[in-house]
Design a protein that fits this description.
Blueprint: H1 5-21, H2 28-32, H3 40-53, H4 59-69, E1 77-79, H5 99-115, E2 116-119, H6 121-125, E3 139-140, H7 151-163, H8 167-184, H9 204-215, H10 218-236, E4 241-245, E5 251-255, H11 269-275, H12 281-297, E6 320-321, H13 323-342, H14 346-367, E7 368-369, E8 374-375, E9 377-379, E10 385-386, E11 389-391, E12 397-398, H15 408-414, H16 427-435, E13 439-440, E14 443-444, E15 459-460, H17 462-473, H18 478-502, E16 509-510, H19 530-543
Helix pairs in contact: 5-19, 7-8, 7-9, 7-19, 8-9, 8-10, 9-10, 9-13, 10-13, 13-14, 15-17, 17-18, 17-19, 18-19
Enzyme class: hydrolase
Family: Belongs to the glycosyl hydrolase 37 family.
GO biological process, one term: trehalose catabolic process
């Protein structure tokens, strides 16, 4: 995609739009999402002549140009009512007894209709006019500016669809993502040409597993398995995998995020260019690479990846071994092993069981911190590397509290015999979470640093709430289950309060105030919103809502 002519042209339009319209309310992503009405060459000629005619283009000429040559952003995804949507499905949230809560849950459930789309046949016919990629089945988009399917968002969308008994829609999403692996070798960050250079947290196997648990569909496992094997190769290739030798001389392999991209992200090019103004040309390329790699992590952006939490240009994502990524890959290995066993491929099952055991041992040896009683990320220092092998240094563990430090709880809950991850699961881990400062009044904070980046304090994100709550709820400890339920109740209440106030579900919430959505970051707070809806429905399915429990916070 580096020389993708459509993207190159749309980025010229994007920077002209900024010059013409000014920075207020400017969203660069809008321009790289515009579908062309004509062949590219015709639009480029018209654009060049517009430039020749007038040095600075007037707003009205610019708007006329947009209207003549482009359709509206998002018009290449057509509204499609999901085939399996029912206003109140049989067996829906049976444990929700409170009438007000049930009424709201049905409203949240009904939002699936608004977020459901199909890629237009026009995209299949003339792909060169669209940055949107063709997908065969129904998609659920996150909402607002996110008018395409996203990789890791889809896991929580599917969790919600399962609560909504929409199994066909859930499967269609999975088949779409599989089609991306078949075409590109990995699931893209999102289904746009400008996302081909990177993936997002690998959760496809978790989507398949959860759907299989509800439907028993072995065909799904058979279709998914070859794709998951390809995806696994992607995450353990030289690009992502690093070898680290521990203090006993054992070598371990763990993975990191690393996009194949050294330019401004097309969807945010004007912002990336502005941020990099003070950098030299080679520093710029490295910075763009680190930003795109942070986007691969799903945590774009966060003090978690920054050497100096007040300076985004110090983002160094590729120098970090993230605990959540390795948990997801370990889960992918366990899922592959389980699916292979069910479908009768015992040697693949055995091979991936062994890979998962090695990764668990690596996580425990390198990322577990016994003093903090939690897992942590690890900073790679190039001075510690000899012939491509890093020597483990305990001082390089990142001891700051991030919600991601507790994501292994989720894996432990799904595969309870994964105890190689930890000496022994005991109440100290729960105490460590409670004392971390991450548990806010209305949810789990992403970090403890308020940097103005969206993956930091005071923002709480639905996926992080869900993985930790799910992990605690299934930890076979009454204390852990109680904590899980209280986090879930507060999270539901704040989502409910914000919905009552604004009429919308939000992409992120402020965990310090009731009913407030989150902010910060590089774009305006978005509504819709796929994963938030999914997590509310999944929590209500798990914990229910008794008649006499107050709905407001
Ligand atoms: O346009 C800026 C960035 O937007 C996306 O990231 C955020 O939204 C995604 C969709 O909900 C979500 O998956 C991600 O975790 C959010 O940070 C996009 O994924 C980025 O690649 C993009 O640069």
């Amino acid at each position: 995609t580096e020389t993708d002519p459509l993207l190159a042209f749309l980025q010229r339009v994007q920077s002209d739009a900024l010059r013409t319209m000014g920075p207020t309310n400017f969203d660069p992503k809008l321009y790289v999402d515009l579908p062309l009405k004509t062949d590219l060459s015709i639009a480029v000629t018209a654009f060049n002549s517009l430039h020749r005619r007038s040095g600075t283009i007037s707003l009205s000429d610019f708007n006329k140009f947009l209207e003549e040559f482009f359709d509206e952003a998002g018009s290449d995804l057509v509204y499609a009512k999901p085939v399996d949507f029912k206003p109140e499905p049989e067996g829906f949230l049976v444990k929700v007894e409170n009438e007000e809560m049930r009424k709201w849950a049905l409203e949240v459930h009904a939002i699936w209709k608004n977020l459901s789309r199909r890629v237009s046949e026009e995209v299949k016919r003339r792909p060169e006019r669209h940055t949107l990629l063709y997908l065969p089945g129904t998609v659920i988009v996150p909402g607002s500016r996110f008018r395409e399917v996203y990789y890791w968002d889809s896991y929580w969308v599917i969790r919600g669809l399962l609560a909504s008994k929409m199994y066909d829609t859930a499967k269609a999403i999975v088949y779409n993502l599989i089609s991306l692996i078949e075409r590109y070798g990995h699931v893209l960050n999102g289904a746009r040409t400008y996302y081909i250079n990177r993936s997002q947290p690998p959760l496809l196997s978790s989507m398949v597993r959860d759907i299989y648990m509800r439907t028993g569909d072995v065909e799904l496992l058979k279709r998914a398995l070859p794709a998951l094997l390809k995806e696994h190769s992607f995450w353990v290739s030289d690009v992502h995998q690093v070898t680290i030798e521990d203090q006993q001389g054992h070598k371990h392999c763990l993975s990191r995020y690393q996009a194949r991209w050294y330019q401004p992200r097309p969807e945010s090019a004007t912002l990336d260019e502005e941020l990099s103004l003070k950098l030299t040309p080679s520093e710029k390329d490295a910075f763009y690479h680190e930003l795109a790699s942070a986007a691969e992590s799903g945590w774009d952006f966060s003090s978690r990846w920054m050497r100096n939490s007040s300076d985004l240009t110090t983002t160094a994502t590729t120098s970090i071994i993230p605990v959540d990524l390795n948990t997801f890959i370990c889960k992918l290995e366990l899922d592959i092993s389980a699916f292979a066993k069910i479908t009768g491929d015992n040697s693949t099952s055995q091979k991936f069981m062994e890979s998962s055991i090695s990764r668990k041992s690596a996580i425990r040896s390198l990322l577990w911190n016994p003093t903090l009683v939690q897992w942590v990320d690890y900073w790679l220092d190039k001075h510690d590397a000899h012939q491509g092998v890093y020597q483990w240094n305990p001082g390089s563990q990142n001891c700051k509290n991030f919600a991601s430090n507790f994501v292994p709880l989720w894996l432990l809950a799904q595969y309870p015999d994964s105890d190689q991850l930890i000496e022994e699961f005991d109440e100290d881990l729960i105490t460590s979470l409670k004392k971390s400062g991450l548990i806010g009044e209305y949810g789990i904070a992403t970090s403890l640093s308020n940097t103005g980046q969206q993956w930091d304090l005071p923002n709480g994100w639905a996926p992080l709430q869900h993985m930790i709550v799910d992990g605690l709820a299934n930890a076979h400890s009454k204390e852990a289950r109680r904590l899980a339920e209280s986090i879930a109740i507060n999270w539901i209440r704040t989502n409910f309060a914000a919905y009552k106030k604004t009429g919308s579900m939000h992409e992120k919430y402020d965990v310090e105030s009731c009913g407030e959505f989150g902010g910060g970051g590089e774009y305006k707070p978005q509504t819709g919103f796929g994963w938030s809806n999914g997590v509310v429905l999944a929590f209500l399915e798990e914990f229910g809502w008794p008649r006499d429990r107050a709905v407001s916070c």
